[in-house]
Recover the amino acids of this structure.
């Protein structure tokens, strides 16, 4: 009996040792493998993504080399288009979703993720905007953002300014700020996205005026100038320039310049999405605590809302020789463990669009304000429901915003630019 027991114990010990070795081997199953990931995140955002990659490296042994693309969205997308044309895309890269995603011809360049069980962890709405013809190409790379007006609370309190509920009320505030020697609005035209935010956030009101506008425009059943809310969006950009309510040299104003100007109380408002809080907080938490948020108003004080931007997508190159590693990375990036790594470095400014994950960190007051506005009344940006966006929109809007075009000329240019884009894509009705 003792011999039998000894044999059983020995067998159990051998089995346990084998199990431990197998587990250790499985945990480092990609030891010696490397993949390349390209993205255009900078600062704390890049650090947060790196924290996720570091955790994956720790778990699997795979090394992740990061390639940083240009911070400018259009420039980064141009690089990806060139690399796609030459078959030189990295294993994984980030890209805007909506029109920009389809410009990269996912059927030819991106790996179809459909059929993987872990896709069930991704928000259904996000899967809809990264899927086409039964194929799914992307998962969320970060959290969503809310666009609106960030204001200097100290200046507003000092001048007893109330949150505006119409565009005319906002212009009245601008006049008060100007009369007190404060630049009312800092326009950040140094980057392509900075030239577009104010106009693109108008889409909440466009959709409110005509819920089917994006679908009808996609089929060329309605013109942009026929939607009054769309026209008002361009007029708002022109208003601020015409009335002298913006900074002197917006075309050379970068995010860094605008953050420093805010810290010095040089202006009252800026039109951005909630990543603006991250930019300010990274340099000065004290200044970030002075940020307030309200939706950009329109003409009806009883109808005020915000426009949402979806996070970039992580997508895989169709030609990657490491697709097994990439799929495991994507699986990991949809888990609580990955979100914990991300938020250990950076406090999010929106939702991660993943199911069954929680954010275990304290949100700032201004981000809570923005999220409350989004929960009350919001709409995704037009680019997520319309695949038409000309390549010159940023330039056209900057010309409206600096007085080189009137609103009428701006809309006409956007319509022509979009028509070219639609025709190049072979869209029906164009």
């Amino acid at each position: 009996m003792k011999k039998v027991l000894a044999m059983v114990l020995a067998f159990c010990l051998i089995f346990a040792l084998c199990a431990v070795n197998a587990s250790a081997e499985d945990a480092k199953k990609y030891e010696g493998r490397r993949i390349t990931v390209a993205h255009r995140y900078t600062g704390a955002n890049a650090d947060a993504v790196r924290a996720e990659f570091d955790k994956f490296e720790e778990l699997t042994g795979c090394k992740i080399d990061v390639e940083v693309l240009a911070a400018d969205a259009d420039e980064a997308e141009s690089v990806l288009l060139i690399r796609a044309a030459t078959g030189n895309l990295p294993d994984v890269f980030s890209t805007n979703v909506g029109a920009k995603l389809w410009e990269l011809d996912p059927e030819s360049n991106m790996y179809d993720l459909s059929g993987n069980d872990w896709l069930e962890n991704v928000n259904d709405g996000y899967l809809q905007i990264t899927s086409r013809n039964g194929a799914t190409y992307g998962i969320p790379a970060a959290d969503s953002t809310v666009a609106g007006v960030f204001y200097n609370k100290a200046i507003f309190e000092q001048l007893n300014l109330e949150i505006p509920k119409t565009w005319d009320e906002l212009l009245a505030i601008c006049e008060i700020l100007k009369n007190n020697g404060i630049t009312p609005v800092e326009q950040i035209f140094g980057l392509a996205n900075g030239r577009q935010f104010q106009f693109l956030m108008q889409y909440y009101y466009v959709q409110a005026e005509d819920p089917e506008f994006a679908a009808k425009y996609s089929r060329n059943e309605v013109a942009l100038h026929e939607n009054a809310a769309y026209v008002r969006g361009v007029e708002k950009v022109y208003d601020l320039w015409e009335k002298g309510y913006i900074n002197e040299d917006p075309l050379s104003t970068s995010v860094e310049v605008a953050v420093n100007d805010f810290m010095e109380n040089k202006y009252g408002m800026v039109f951005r999405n909630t990543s603006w809080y991250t930019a300010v907080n990274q340099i000065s938490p004290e200044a970030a605590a002075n940020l307030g948020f309200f939706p950009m108003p329109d003409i009806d004080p009883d109808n005020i809302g915000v426009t949402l931007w979806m996070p970039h997508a992580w997508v895989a190159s169709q030609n990657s020789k490491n697709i097994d590693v990439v799929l495991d990375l994507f699986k990991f990036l949809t888990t609580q463990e990955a979100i914990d790594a991300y938020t250990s470095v950076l406090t999010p400014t929106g939702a991660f669009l993943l199911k069954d994950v929680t954010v275990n960190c304290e949100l700032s007051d201004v981000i809570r304000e923005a999220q409350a506005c989004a929960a009350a009344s919001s709409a995704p940006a037009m680019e997520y429901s319309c695949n038409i966006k000309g390549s010159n929109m940023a330039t056209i809007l900057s010309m409206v915003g600096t007085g080189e075009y009137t609103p009428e000329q701006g809309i006409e240019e956007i319509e022509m630019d979009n028509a070219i884009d639609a025709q190049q894509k072979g869209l029906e009705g164009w």
In short: The chain has a mean pLDDT of 91. Residues 145-309+367-424 form a domain with the D-Maltodextrin-Binding Protein; domain 2 fold (CATH 3.40.190.10). The first strand starts at residue 34 and ends at 39.
